[in-house]
Amino acid sequence: MHMGLQFVLIHGAWHHAGHWDKVIQELERAGHKAYAPTLLGNEPGALRINYSLKERTQHLREDIVRRNLTDFVLVAHSAGGPYAQELAQLEPHRIRQLVFLSAFILKDGECIRKFCLDNRLGIPKNERVDRSPENFLFPSKLPLEWWHKAFAHSVDPETRKALHATLVSQGGQAFADCHDFKAFYELKVPITYIHITNDILPGLPGMKNGEGWHPGFSSRLGTNFKVVKMDGDHEVMLTAPTSLARTLVEASECQPQTILKKVDALEYQDPTILKKVEATEFQPQTILKKLDSCEYHGPTILKKVESSEFEPQSIIKQLVD
Q1: What is the pLDDT of residues 63-82, one digit of tens each?
Q2: Domain 6-253, what fold?
Q3: CA geometry: angle 134, 10, 109, nearest 5 deg
Q4: What is the pLDDT at residue 272?
Q5: Is the pLDDT of residue 176 over 70?
Q6: Where on the tree of life does the source sit, at the highest rank (predicted)?
Q7: Does pTM surpass 0.90?
Q8: Cystine design at 216: which of 130, 212, 270, 283 (Cβ 3.0–4.6 Å)?
Q9: Which regions of the chain does DSSP assign to beta strands (E)?
Q10: Domain boundaries defined on the chain
Q11: Cα angle 98-13-41, degrees, rounded to a multiple of 5
């Protein structure tokens, strides 16, 4: 029985699935599974790059259904955020958790385009997107120096140049589409927002001291979400894949349903344990509070749960004492 997590990783603008390769390797090394699709039009060398948000999301949905992926953690980076929002509306029963990684979170009827036309993204003047809805395109290739300053400032010049060369042309039609996200804000799927503390992309709503993504976008989730922090720049899947993989696992394992699933695993079949977890005195949020404390980090507790050192009857005691 596979006891690890299943991740689906959605990339952002100018990216493709291959940019998640090192993160996937780290996740698999830790005993998890991961799949990264390429959004329609972002395939390296694609002849057509402009597709609507609806077309891209439908293509993504069909891919996930065809692969019969269920009970997965859906991770969305940057401009991949709205695709995760839409997919969650369409297939909520397949998703165990949403994780937004420095991602756009759109309000109902909103589009990413609004954050580009007044240059909130800080794109150099001669590289800004076209203001015409009929010909709305992001720069096909971002200037290296600007990309370095805004996205990948944590790596050396040689690495930066090599990474920049892997970016793809980015069509902007999907980012001009205003979409209905009413259902997203009614979902009961657990949500985590990963706040990359050194992500200094300028000019986003709520921007203050380099914190445009959080709380600029994360605050749109209301109060029912978890924030996990990590160091790095905007391109952490390329510049800090090991750290990102570890953070994704941490962000996912600290959810109540993950703890309960671990306790309910075949090797720990004990109705008494589950009854204790579900009892009033042992509510999931109590367990989470312990997991979030300095003394009880999520991965440490799960390791204890899986080890032979602790008998099933002791698991809850270890969690809540």
Answers
A1: 999 999 999 999 999 999 99
A2: Rossmann fold (3.40.50)
A3: 45
A4: 54
A5: yes
A6: Eukaryota
A7: no
A8: 212
A9: 6-10, 33-35, 72-77, 95-101, 191-196, 226-230
A10: 6-253, 256-320
A11: 100
